[in-house]
Amino acid sequence: PAYIHSAFAQWHQLSWLKSGSILAELRRLAAASERGAELEDLVTVIEMDMGYALHRAVAGVKVELSLAERATLRFAGWGVRIEAEVNRAAFEAWIAPDLAAIDAGIERALEQAGHPTIDAVFITGGTSFVPAVRRLFDRRFAPERLHHGDAFQSVASGLALMAADRAA
């Protein structure tokens, strides 16, 4: 079901799937499916609260694909084993709608600002390492205008500064 798939997009949503009715539905699907063992593994991931660990494994592959053309997803726990080769081209195809949304957001911001001259663009966050994201910004802005900060701490630092400002 789509709502189960959607829950996987945000690991913390998996805990909402622990209700008896959802697990029962998944078990019924597993019994009727040619891929029942995989659905039973999904039940185990949900029941044993392994969503965050799975999310971290997937995030690690994302990081690897930012540096190499191929990566291997490896995840194991409570009898669940996942091992899958992933290549950058497939990853970029999966995130194409997100890239289009980022590009559209940039276009809206530029339109609302009256298409100003951009002197500098600061790119941060783990996603800023994804080559397809970098290419998107390279196409939109001259590479010499792009500035990369501490991708993992600058977002948290910025949020902390905003919170301090609001608390004052």
Distance between the termini: 46 Å
Strand order of the largest sheet: 1-2
Helix content range of the residues, please? Answer: 55-70%
Compute the number of strand runs: 4
Identify the overall geometry. Answer: elongated
Count helical runs.
8
Give the averaged pLDDT, no decimals.
92
Overall SS class: alpha+beta
Oligomer: single chain
Radius of gyration, taken over Cα atoms and rounded to an integer in Å: 20 Å
Q: What string gives the helices and strands in order?
A: HHHHEEHHEHEH
Largest sheet: 2 strands, antiparallel
* Beta-strand proportion: 5-15%
List low-pLDDT spans: none
What does this structure look like?
With 168 residues, this protein is α+β, with helices and mostly antiparallel strands. It is 58% helix and 13% strand. The strands form 2 sheets. Strands 1-2 form a two-stranded antiparallel ribbon. A two-stranded parallel ribbon has the order 3-4. It starts with a helix and ends with a helix.
Quick tags:
elongated, 8 helices, alpha+beta, two-stranded parallel ribbon, two-stranded antiparallel sheet, 168 residues
Write the layout of secondary structure elements.
Elements: H1 2-8, H2 20-32, H3 36-47, H4 51-67, E1 70-77, E2 80-87, H5 88-94, H6 96-112, E3 121-123, H7 131-140, E4 146-148, H8 154-167
Parallel strand pairs: 3-4
Antiparallel strand pairs: 1-2
Helix pairs in contact: 2-3
Give a summary of the structure in a few sentences.
The protein is an alpha+beta fold and 168 residues long. The protein contains eight helices and four strands. The protein has helices at 2-8, 20-32, 36-47, 51-67, 88-94, 96-112, 131-140, 154-167, and strands spanning 70-77, 80-87, 121-123, 146-148.
